[in-house]
Design a protein that fits this description.
Distance between the termini: 61 Å
Shape: globular
Oligomer: single chain
Bound molecules: flavin mononucleotide
Order of helices and strands: HHHHHHHHHHEHEHEHE
Strand content: 5-15%
CATH class of the largest domain: Alpha Beta
């Protein structure tokens, strides 16, 4: 294929010769080098690898070579793996090279007409990456930190203590911009692979609240100024290892729920996490989706009852931390 043999490389063991060979023979040679690497002894391999690795184009040739020789299933698995790496750049992955890997995989999947949910997800993620929507601008990244922010931790602890479930509210509206800000806090919550699968249904209409109170069989909902229903788009999950459809939506939704109730407490509002998915019959769930014109793929996880309150309610008891911890602090 190229004018350089395994024997030649083994004989020379000189990176200089190899460098000349690669540059004179171009990309084809680098495929070849990677192929012969497996056949070489360790010393030669290391010296060649040390030379080859820093070369971006050689690495890219290797990517193309590896992809061409992979089965459809291996391509799908690699899309999943590489997309996760793209999301986890904080682990020190080389973002640009990884994105190149993803785009090459997607091109190959396209040319082979591979149909897979993982590939679809990869396409969307890669488009977002190109549009600058995978990472926030650097100035928005969290600051480097090597010391504990005791004041910050204490302030957050105070906020968690301030939150408690409120089930009786004043008949007073919560301004839209406040609800918007509380929802913005929910968007900052973690979600599996950053799929941001949550959707929020905001209910203020008295007739709709009455309907919800009836099907959920919780009367205080009818007298709650604002109800936020946390929904999760289950379409983005499948039943393979990339996010189990039965469990992951509930986890994504619960993460958002936690942000919502804490944000409400920070705003001085009362809130109550009110079960939905686990407390409603399948028939009522179907009726609920029809009533609010929601797509079938939505999982209605839980409700947040939200509003002003005037009464101090006794705070439910909490155990001591020791009785909840296994292992050492
Ligand atoms: C998953 C979950 C489901 C809940 N469902 C309901 C509910 O359906 N109705 C309700 O009044 N409170 C509900 N709560 C609120 C709990 O009853 C409440 O958090 C608990 O009693 C502790 O009280 P606190 O929130 O005031 O600290 C729920 C809380 C969680 C986390």
């Amino acid at each position: 294929m190229v004018g350089i043999s395994v024997e030649e490389i083994q004989k020379s063991k000189k990176v200089f010769n190899l460098e000349r060979a690669i540059y004179s023979k171009g990309a084809q040679a680098s495929f070849f080098v990677y192929r012969v690497l497996n056949k070489l002894d360790r010393v030669t391999k290391n010296s060649i690898s040390a030379f080859v690795r820093p070369k971006k184009w050689t690495y890219r040739c290797w990517i193309r070579y590896k992809i061409k020789g992979s089965t459809d299933d291996q391509i799908i698995a690699m899309v999943g793996d590489r997309c996760h790496k793209l999301l986890q750049m904080a682990l020190g992955q080389r973002i640009e090279e990884n994105a190149y890997f993803v785009s090459t995989l997607l091109r190959e999947a396209e040319s082979r007409k591979i149909k897979s949910r993982v590939v679809n997800w990869g396409k969307k993620l890669h488009e977002d990456y190109k549009a600058g929507k995978v990472y926030q601008p650097t100035e928005l990244s969290i600051a480097e930190s090597e010391e504990v922010d005791h004041a910050g931790l204490e302030a957050f602890y105070e906020l968690t203590k301030k939150r408690q479930s409120i089930r009786r509210f004043l008949p007073k509206d919560v301004p839209s911009e406040v609800v918007g800000k509380i929802l913005a806090c929910a968007l900052e919550s973690p979600s599996s692979c950053n799929r941001q699968s949550w959707r929020f249904l905001v209910i203020r209409d008295p007739i709709k609240k009455e309907y919800l109170a009836k099907i959920r069989n919780v009367q205080f909902l009818a007298n709650t100024p604002v109800i936020i229903c946390v929904l999760v788009n289950s379409e983005v999950y499948s039943n393979n290892g990339q996010g189990d459809k039965r469990i992951t939506p509930i986890m994504d939704g619960s993460a958002a729920m936690t942000h919502l109730v804490l944000a409400s407490a920070a705003a001085g509002l009362g809130s109550c996490w009110t079960n939905f998915a686990a407390s409603i019959s399948p028939e009522n769930m179907q009726n609920f989706k029809k009533y609010f014109n929601l797509p079938e793929s939505m999982v209605a996880v839980s409700l947040v009852a939200l509003g002003f309150y005037d009464k101090k309610f006794p705070k439910p008891f909490r155990d001591n931390i020791d009785s909840h911890v296994f292992g050492e602090l």
